[in-house]
């Protein structure tokens, strides 16, 4: 019997990504404090938050399911860059990134409630922005309103027009759920997307 797959996320972007695999799933929304701890490195922050999302949902799981949680942050000049939430902050972030490279970290955690097997992976992706004019930045934010996206862009949309270069092994990690790692993790627990 195939185990039930659960995505521990309320993100519409992660839900759209997981749908690409063609495996039926349900969602649960973890309610956790995602504040960064003092002196916490970005890699530590992402791992802690990704696993905390899973731990917050454990009591709601049946004994026969696979839970996936994920979290992402952008880092630039030793700062963790979050979602802008306002157009003004999105514009300020993009002006800061113009001509620069921003690093994105995406954590993925998979937990099998039947076997207690778990796996955490961290994907890194780098985006180098073109030298952007104020007009281009303001126009982009007005068109796509990337207010709920770390880094203030949607790479799956017009945001790609802001880039000079992208580097990494899994472009879907930039969208919030690394599907290559997700497929590998699912295969390791016996849920092969191609089976």
Automatic annotation (TrEMBL):
Important for substrate specificity, annotated site positions: 13, 72, 156
Highest rank taxon of the organism: Bacteria
Enzymatic reactions: N(7)-methyl-GTP + H2O = N(7)-methyl-GMP + diphosphate + H(+)
Presence of the UniProt keyword 4Fe-4S in the record: no
Gene3D superfamilies (UniProt xref): 3.90.950.10
Record InterPro entries: ITPase-like_fam, Maf-like
Compartments reported by the entry: Cytoplasm
TM region positions: none
Cofactor(s) required for function per UniProt: a divalent metal cation
Entry annotated with the keyword Cytoplasm: yes
Active site, renumbered: 71 (proton acceptor)
BP terms from Gene Ontology: nucleotide metabolic process
Protein EC: 3.6.1.-
Record keywords, A-Z: Cytoplasm, Hydrolase, Nucleotide metabolism
Entry function: Nucleoside triphosphate pyrophosphatase that hydrolyzes 7-methyl-GTP (m(7)GTP). May have a dual role in cell division arrest and in preventing the incorporation of modified nucleotides into cellular nucleic acids.
Annotated family: Belongs to the Maf family. YceF subfamily.
Name this protein carries in UniProt: 7-methyl-GTP pyrophosphatase
């Amino acid at each position: 019997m195939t185990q039930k797959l659960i995505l521990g996320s309320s993100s519409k972007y992660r839900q759209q990504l997981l749908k690409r695999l063609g495996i039926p799933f349900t969602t649960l929304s973890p309610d956790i404090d995602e504040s960064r701890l003092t002196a916490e490195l970005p890699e530590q922050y992402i791992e802690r938050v990704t696993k905390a999302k899973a731990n917050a949902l454990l009591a709601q799981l049946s004994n026969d399911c696979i839970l996936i949680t994920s979290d992402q942050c952008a880092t630039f000049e030793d700062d963790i860059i979050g979602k802008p939430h306002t157009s003004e902050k999105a514009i300020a972030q993009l002006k800061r990134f113009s001509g620069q490279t921003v690093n994105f970290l995406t954590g993925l955690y998979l937990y099998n409630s039947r076997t207690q097997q778990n796996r955490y992976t961290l994907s890194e992706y780098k985006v180098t922005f073109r030298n952007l004019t104020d007009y281009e930045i303001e126009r982009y934010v007005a068109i796509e309103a990337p207010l709920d996206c770390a880094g203030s862009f949607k790479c799956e949309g017009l945001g790609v027009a802001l880039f000079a270069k992208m580097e990494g092994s899994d472009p879907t990690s930039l969208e919030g759920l690394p599907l290559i790692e997700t497929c590998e993790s699912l295969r390791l627990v016996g849920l092969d997307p191609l089976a």
